[in-house]
Design brief:
422 residues, globular, 17 helices, 15% strand, single chain, alpha/beta, seven-stranded mixed sheet
């Protein structure tokens, strides 16, 4: 593993300048591979972008699906010297690879400003009410829900299907993403009832479900409320953009299954992992880094603030997201604004059916701009492609790993202590 792409303070140089480093997860056995030989196969010269730069960044995203499979290899039109080398998570440098906005107008802190890390939230997850008629709770849409049995459960979202199994539940049916993207081993008897954005309603009812799990952030699923209500099918909506939301969902599911042991294993133990990371970062009193978070897809790229899963984790870790203080970046990803803010770290999360195409778009429309290579984050090699499994899909029982991974990138000085927490 080349050592040239490690973070500053860990022997890192800028040999990967211009393109994102490929980030291994905090698990030594789960690295994202990178085939350097796939780069520059056409031998073309990077093209310069003219006045169309801003419009290219802001193409319509309505057609982008919420969860898709990743393609780990990438290609670009950059010269060989711009090729990113594989970067190992700083937790394992030297080894083999594998919501809360700042008020508008708030300026970034001075370089000597220390990190203020969010205190670990107190335990607010209450058990669902258990009555003779089953389990009663209020879902993420504000609907009162009573579930009397959960022998034939249908999940319309892969991540939530996994959470149900983490609570000791079994599934009668789920959507394609659970199998094709999450890679869940749900047995051969599981029925696949369409995609998370186009679930087959006839197939749902054909399963004779006693409980249906839905995503409150997918419009095609929120539209099913009246349909399921009229059909007499108990159902509930969830969203998990923060760990606390995941923990609340797991609490509800474990109240159904009666598996308090799994709530402790896959919930409270993970909560402690996160608390340990946050306390380590806060006690270190390191300067708060300015960061830019990008979500890339095959036809464009958007800056993201702290109102999404990865953005919320960065904020918890004390990072200052430049898009929180500059709302214009959320609407118009302007190179002029990025240059003015000059983030110290740039993080990319891909979405869409093809990670390859998302990375190609970045190479052709962002990295090819001469101004891009002059950014401090690019010059220092702090331009990262984040692991989709931890930062696009819901990490579920791996939330602690997600926090450790980001902390090690933001604060490489803490890599050894973070490794000890793993």
């Amino acid at each position: 593993m080349p050592g040239a792409c490690r973070r500053a303070g860990r022997g890192r140089t800028a040999s990967s300048r211009g393109q994102p480093c490929y980030l291994a997860t905090a698990c030594r056995d789960h690295a994202i591979p990178f085939d350097a030989g796939a780069v520059n196969t056409g031998g073309s010269v990077p093209t310069r972008l003219e006045s169309t730069m801003d419009s290219l960044f802001n193409r319509n995203t309505d057609s982008v699906t919420g969860g898709e499979s990743a393609e780990p290899n990438t290609a670009s039109q950059h010269a060989a010297s711009d090729v990113p080398v594989a970067v190992v998570n700083p937790l394992y440098a030297g080894e083999s690879a594998g919501e809360h906005a700042m008020p508008a107008g708030t300026s970034a802190p001075a370089p000597d400003t220390c990190v203020y890390v969010a205190e670990p939230a107190p335990q607010q997850t209450a058990k669902a009410a258990e009555t003779q008629s089953g389990v009663t709770f209020t879902d993420a849409m504000g609907y009162p829900v009573t579930v009397q049995s959960w022998n034939r459960v249908v999940s319309l979202y892969g991540s939530f299907a996994e959470t149900w199994t983490l609570a000791g539940g079994t599934l009668a049916a789920t959507t394609e993403d659970a199998i094709k993207e999450r890679g869940l081993d749900l047995g051969t008897d599981i029925a696949v009832i369409g995609t998370n954005q186009d679930p087959n309603t006839e197939e749902i009812l054909a399963q004779n479900p006693d409980f249906v799990i839905l995503n409150a952030e997918v419009s095609e699923q929120t539209a099913l409320h009246e349909f399921l209500q009229e059909a007499g099918v108990p159902h509930a909506y969830f969203k998990t953009n923060t760990f606390d939301e995941y923990l609340a969902m797991l609490r509800t599911f474990c109240d159904m299954t009666g598996r308090e042991d799994l709530y402790e294993q896959n919930g409270l133990a993970v909560q402690q992992q996160i608390t340990d990371v946050l306390e380590l970062v806060q006690n270190a009193k390191l300067p708060a880094p300015n960061v830019l978070l990008l979500r890339a897809y095959s036809s464009g790229c958007k800056a993201k603030g702290s109102d999404n899963m990865t953005g919320a984790m960065l904020k918890d870790l004390g990072a200052i997201n430049i898009a929180d203080a500059d709302d214009s970046l959320l609407e118009n990803l302007s190179m002029e604004n990025i240059i003015a803010d000059d983030p110290e770290d740039i993080f990319v999360v891909t979405m869409g059916a093809s990670q390859q195409k998302a990375l190609d778009w970045l190479a052709e429309n962002l990295q090819a701009n001469p101004a891009w290579s002059g950014l401090s984050a690019v010059q220092s090699g702090h331009y990262y492609l984040l692991d989709k499994a931890l930062f696009h899909y819901k990490p579920n029982a791996r939330w602690g790993e997600s926090y450790r991974t980001l902390a090690a990138l933001l604060y490489p000085q803490l890599a050894d202590q973070l490794e000890a927490l793993a």
